[in-house]
Fold this protein.
Amino acid sequence: MSFQLQSLFTLHERARIYPFIGFILLLACEPLLASGLSWLGLGSQPTYLLRTLAAVALLLYFWRDYTELSLAPSFYHGVIAILSGLLVFAIWILPYPAWMGGYVAADSKALPLYDAMDVFWLVCRWSGSALVVPVIEELFWRAYLMRRLEHAEFMAVSPAAVGTYAVLVSSVLFAIEHQLWFAGLLAGLIYAGLYRRYQLLWVAVLAHMVTNGVLGAWVVLGGHWQYW
């Protein structure tokens, strides 16, 4: 199986696909993981931490291949990223109807906050969402898939040369990943636009981090648990 996968994808593709796919596969297996952890007496809380650690391990393994992340953003880029991330956050929390994936009160599942361990798991959940997920998603959706849709030799494709078709298709697929698909579509278009406009993946990554970080704080402080 490993040989078949290596034959199917190039090293550059594996570096951008595996962290994201691994995270998604562990998410799909979460009920099984939670049952196993509960059977071991560890409770179900560590499941998100396990997904995050697996993603981090794969990112570190492939880190030398991420040439898109070799250039650091400037202060100006940082400001743009922060403003864009806040814009996406504002879009995300708008009241959407059910057909757009809008949440209802029954969707809310508050995390327990009874002791120090509960706070620890909450910090792990927020850290993974704000610091790790944006990296693996931007590497997959924008650095890989968006450019791959433009040309098979995606590493040779400049973000500025990506056409409308690749931006739209990658953003639609990104939207399908989320329950709030319309907000996800707009978010995908904004992140793609940032990468295409500034040609620095870190701008999109930082914007995504701001969105997820502020959203996580809003969820916890405001009790809007349905967004997690």
Notes: DSSP finds nine helices and no strands in the chain.
